[in-house]
UniProtKB/TrEMBL annotation:
Family: Belongs to the binding-protein-dependent transport system permease family.
TM regions (residue ranges): 9-30, 132-151, 163-189, 219-242, 279-304, 324-350
Protein name: Inner membrane ABC transporter permease protein YejB
Gene Ontology terms: cellular component: plasma membrane
Topology versus the membrane: Multi-pass membrane protein
Biological process annotations from GO: microcin transport; transmembrane transport
Location(s) in or outside the cell: Cell inner membrane; Cell membrane
Length: 361
């Protein structure tokens, strides 16, 4: 197992490098680079894309005596533009900028945000608790609901209970997370009907003045709707996965043998089937968490005004804040790759009979 883990760890390096190469190349063709953003803010145009035909912070040609300028920069001194290029590093060739960035990342130096005057690592650490809180609660609740429901559906396969719960699950899976989040806001956060839950934020303004129980209640009050909105799709997938896993195990010979020995159905189900059927579900916990953590966080955090990593990444992409974009991309990609290894280790922990090295051989 040690050799397998070592190979997986070594594969992280080329995989991360490939991810960064592809995304760095793509940013060179995206309109409205950081310098255009600064120019647009200084001139108050509010539209960085007006007149832009190139991007990624690259200069564009204008006919006439102005020479090479950025779109919208005709009224600014060339010295100022050159200083911006130097400050942002665009006075160097793209290849040199890329390898400088990779070298800094190898030393865990992610640079500083162009527009926030704070290091990227501090920015990520500041926003991470919100996203982890949302992802962890969503994953735990999805498991607590999906496993009992999936087992019940497997035991009563083909019954009316199985039919109507399957229909409900299909509907839940079909509803986009952002649409369900808006529906929750309209119904329960003062949109048009009830105002039971707060509209935005993770805590109230007077959070620090509350007692310990008051802080816990306030936190749960704020997190309720975002967690429900981000749980719905994971809940549907896990329920069907649990049901199918249990159905596969129930049909096996050892279950028939256990029943023939006179064991009660509960003993057969929870003493024999449960351990084998839950292998893929329990071992997949890290992957489910990282899926909820990344895929749903951007929209959910934006809708509920939660200041987490998803919203940070979205705002950085809009502002072309390259250090934040690439820093968070590097961290997210590294976390995803490491979680993939942890998922394999979970399989071995749950069922020691699994040997990845033998399978690879």
């Amino acid at each position: 197992m040690g050799a397998y883990i070592l190979r997986r760890l070594l594969l992280i390096i080329p995989t991360l490098f490939g991810i960064m190469v592809v995304n760095f190349i793509l940013t060179q063709f995206v309109p409205g680079g950081p310098i255009e953003q600064v120019i647009a803010r200084m001139e108050g145009s509010g539209d960085v894309f007006s007149g832009i035909s190139g991007g990624g912070g690259q200069p564009m040609e204008f006919e006439g005596g102005g020479g090479t300028e950025y779109a919208g920069a005709r009224g600014l001194p060339p010295e100022f533009i050159a200083e911006l290029e130097r400050e942002f590093g665009f006075d160097k060739p793209p290849l040199e900028r890329f390898f400088t960035m990779i070298w800094n990342y190898m030393r865990l130096d992610f640079g500083e945000s162009y527009f926030r005057s704070i290091s990227v690592i501090d920015l990520v650490l500041e926003k991470m608790p919100v996203s982890i809180s949302l992802g962890l609660w969503s994953t735990v609740i999805a498991y607590l609901v999906s496993i009992p429901l999936g087992i019940r559906k497997a035991v009563r396969d083909g019954s009316s209970f199985d039919t109507w719960t399957s229909a409900l699950i299909v509907v839940a899976y079909a509803i986009p997370g952002f649409l369900f989040a808006i529906l929750l806001l309209v119904l329960f956060a003062g949109g048009s009907y009830l105002q039971i839950f707060p509209l935005r934020g993770l805590t109230s303004d007077n959070f620090e003045q509350l007692s310990l129980l008051g802080k816990i209640g306030d936190y749960l009050w704020h997190i309720a709707l975002p967690v429900i909105a981000s749980t719905i799709s994971a809940f549907a997938t896990l329920t069907l996965l649990t049901k199918n896993s249990f159905l596969d195990e129930i049909k096996k010979q050892y279950v028939t043998t256990a029943r023939a020995k006179g064991l009660k159905e509960s003993q057969v189900l929870y003493g024999h089937v449960f351990r084998n059927a839950m292998l893929i579900i329990i071992a997949g916990f890290p992957s489910v968490f990282i899926g909820v953590f990344f895929t749903g966080s951007i929209i959910i955090e934006t809708i509920f005004s939660l200041d987490g990593l998803g919203r940070l990444g979205f705002e950085a992409a809009v502002a072309r804040d390259y250090p934040v974009i690439f820093g968070t991309l590097f961290v997210f990609s590294l976390m995803t790759l490491v979680v993939g290894i942890l998922a394999d280790l979970m399989y071995v922990f749950v069922d020691p009979r699994i040997d990845f090295e033998t399978r690879e051989g």
